[in-house]
């Protein structure tokens, strides 16, 4: 089992800002109890989901190398996932939504490598290897769904966030960590739950990221497929929860035909979902995604796209009609008749074309910000970008000429043209001036003493989206989560119990064990009388050995446990049902 970050060509091409979230999977961190939790959930899942999950599920388990008896290793998963064009990386719990989706765009599955506690075996709000490995991985073996997931990541990572989105993300991440950690005071959990609830209920207009996260939740995480009256499960949150996968199939959960309306339906990560959406097929998921993307600033651009970027207070990009891309922190836009006529960034800004930084226009060169008019020249029907070389010369837009360009929105650029940069089609996308003054009515926007003025050319803003055009233009090693997952506490008592679990695991595998099942059970009763899962595993082995006397003792112990701990009675019964092949369990 590898403890390094296992390679795969898809991982090798990940940009640096995504690599910061990857951590090695140390397989030795998984304890015998962890392995037993994985095995219990997977045996229950395979048994139950074979009847209620989409037909891709069981086939996908085989194709992605997911075993029932062993927590998957990244090495094994990457070796097999490579065959279907995907890869997997380990991360520490929740990562920022933009990063999560961008991994998907690169066909890389993000797997939180920790595993839930035995006490949370049915469901945990924290992402874990059961959720990711047993939930997400099998379904991506379906090519149609895999393409939806990749496309979702490609579009989703461009969604513009708000500062509030990141605050919600940090709060939910901390909540998931505290709820999964052993011994967290209830008061701490209550406090962070209230913060999450207050943030989610805050009546503000949702950002693009908030809306597309809703679509992600109701499809990738909690999606149903088929007929509303008789749906199948494909969402990873349901596939990995032995409690909610059964609950969701009852009439207690409302089933709604999937549509773009799901983008406006929020969710509570800490509770069972009261309603779920049913898509008729995977192709329809892509149809709704494109419908949503058509409403995003990524495709609409314009004044509203710029305003979204300004409100986000984060690195973003606009693209003009010539294809030139401006990436930076947008802080101001001058508008005229509902259209942007001048855009401004503050701080490091880079200029690109087709996602490749223009030579000489790095973030270091434009370190103090960037500003440029947008639109057509006043009184001239022909936009600069549409002018032929003869047109440009006729209007004195020519190297070495001193020119005054008056734009329709009231912006005036006066200066001596140094040079112009053209795109591959030959259109002017950038003009550089010296001794330049830029004004909007009576407001001075640029002065000659500030140096060279670079003017982006474009009659309109056709796109606005989160992040840079060229990921290499900026140092994006930032926004690493401030909270870290909390590991299970070690104690002598815990180690003793882990050793008992390991002994049973060795016996099942036919290995030499230091204790007999009788001795293990005796020690379990004496020192760990509240543990239930190991007794179920012992029953499984005794049933195979036809050891009726000891089996009777363990079954009586489990009956006693069910009486003492009624909340886990159904878990015990669920394990016994698998062993006795649906015989009546009393």
UniProtKB/TrEMBL annotation:
The keyword Manganese does not apply. Coiled coil: none annotated. Keywords: Iron, Metal-binding, Monooxygenase, Oxidoreductase. The keyword Transmembrane does not apply. Fe cation binds at residues 131, 136, 221. CDD domains: arom_aa_hydroxylase. GO terms for molecular function: iron ion binding; oxidoreductase activity, acting on paired donors, with incorporation or reduction of molecular oxygen, reduced pteridine as one donor, and incorporation of one atom of oxygen. GO terms for biological process: aromatic amino acid metabolic process. It comes from the Bacteria. Its cofactor is Fe(2+). Residues 1-342 form the Biopterin-dependent aromatic amino acid hydroxylase family profile domain. Belongs to the biopterin-dependent aromatic amino acid hydroxylase family. This is Phenylalanine 4-monooxygenase. It comes from Flavobacterium rivuli WB 3.3-2 = DSM 21788.
């Amino acid at each position: 089992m590898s403890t390094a970050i296992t390679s795969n060509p898809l991982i090798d091409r990940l940009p640096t800002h995504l690599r910061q979230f990857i951590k090695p999977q140390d397989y030795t961190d998984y304890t015998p109890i962890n392995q037993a939790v994985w095995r219990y959930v997977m045996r229950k899942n395979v048994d139950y989901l074979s009847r209620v999950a989409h037909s891709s599920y069981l086939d996908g388990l085989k194709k992605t190398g997911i075993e029932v008896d062993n927590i998957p290793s990244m090495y094994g998963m990457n070796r097999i996932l490579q065959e279907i064009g995907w890869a997997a990386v380990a991360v520490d719990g929740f990562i920022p939504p933009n990063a999560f989706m961008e991994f998907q765009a690169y066909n890389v599955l993000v797997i939180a490598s920790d595993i839930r506690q035995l006490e949370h075996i049915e469901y945990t709000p924290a992402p874990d290897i059961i959720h990711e490995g047993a939930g997400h991985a099998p379904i991506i073996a379906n090519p149609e769904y895999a393409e939806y997931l990749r496309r979702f990541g490609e579009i989703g990572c461009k969604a513009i966030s708000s500062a509030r989105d990141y605050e919600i993300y940090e709060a939910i991440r901390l909540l998931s960590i505290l709820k999964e950690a052993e011994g967290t005071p209830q008061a701490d959990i209550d406090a962070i739950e209230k913060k999450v609830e207050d943030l989610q209920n805050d009546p503000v207009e949702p950002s693009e990221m908030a809306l597309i996260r809703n679509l992600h939740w109701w499809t990738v995480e909690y999606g149903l497929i088929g007929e509303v009256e008789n749906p199948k499960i494909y969402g990873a949150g349901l596939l990995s929860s032995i409690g909610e996968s059964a609950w969701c199939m009852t009439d207690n959960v409302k089933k709604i035909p999937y549509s773009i309306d799901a983008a406006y339906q929020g969710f509570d990560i800490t509770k069972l979902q009261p309603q779920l959406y049913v898509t008729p097929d995977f192709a329809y998921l892509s149809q709704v995604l494109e419908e949503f993307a058509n409403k995003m600033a990524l495709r609409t651009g314009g004044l509203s796209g710029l305003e979204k970027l300004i409100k986000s207070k984060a690195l973003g990009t606009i693209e003009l009609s010539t294809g030139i891309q401006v990436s930076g922190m947008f802080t101001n836009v001058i508008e005229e008749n509902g259209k942007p006529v001048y855009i401004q960034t503050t701080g490091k800004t880079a200029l690109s074309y087709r996602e490749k930084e223009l030579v000489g226009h790095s973030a270091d060169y434009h370190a103090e910000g960037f500003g440029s008019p947008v639109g057509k020249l006043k009184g001239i029907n022909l936009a600069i970008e549409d002018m032929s070389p003869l047109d440009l010369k006729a209007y004195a837009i020519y190297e070495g000429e001193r020119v005054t360009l008056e734009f329709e929105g009231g912006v005036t650029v006066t200066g001596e043209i140094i040079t112009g940069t053209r795109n591959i089609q030959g259109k002017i996308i950038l003009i550089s001036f010296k001794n330049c003054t830029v004004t909007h009515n009576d407001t001075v926007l640029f002065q000659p003493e500030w140096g060279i003025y670079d003017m982006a050319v474009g009659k309109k803003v056709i796109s606005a989206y989160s992040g840079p055009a060229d990921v290499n233009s900026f140092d994006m090693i930032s926004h690493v989560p401030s909270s870290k997952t909390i590991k299970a506490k070690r104690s002598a008592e815990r180690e003793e119990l882990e050793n008992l679990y390991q002994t049973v695991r060795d016996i099942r595998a036919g290995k030499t064990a230091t204790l007999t099942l009788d001795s293990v059970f005796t020690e379990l009763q004496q020192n760990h009388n509240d543990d239930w899962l190991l007794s179920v595993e012992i029953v499984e082995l005794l049933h195979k050995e036809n050891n009726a006397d000891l089996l009777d003792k363990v079954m009586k112990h489990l009956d006693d446990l069910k009486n003492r701990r009624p909340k886990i009675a159904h878990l015990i019964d669920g394990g016994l049902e698998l062993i006795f092949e649906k015989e009546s369990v009393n």
